[in-house]
Design brief:
The chain is an all-alpha fold. The chain has a domain of about 25 residues. The protein is built from three helices and no strands.
Length: about 80
């Protein structure tokens, strides 16, 4: 592993992030999980405490559908 010079360390911001990252895209591989999701679906990451309660996609979708039915009808969005 290469050691970084002190000048590079000084350029990092308070969160420890560098101002720029260089990725070697020649080593990139396709997402092996992409085929598991249907077109038009969204992938959402649940917080650990929520994931303990809703352990299956069916349980998450069921509660979200119930909440969606309880919401007032959506008005037509105005175009800008």
């Amino acid at each position: 592993m290469k050691k970084t010079s002190s000048s590079r360390r000084a350029r990092r911001n308070a969160e420890g992030l560098q101002p720029e990252y260089r990725f070697d895209y020649r080593k990139a591989r396709p997402n092996r999980f992409a085929s598991r999701y249907r077109a038009g679906s969204r992938v959402v990451v649940l917080d650990p405490d929520v994931a303990k309660v809703f352990t299956t996609p069916e349980s998450v979708n069921g509660i979200l559908r119930a909440v969606a039915r309880a919401l007032p009808p959506k008005r037509a969005a105005k175009r800008r």
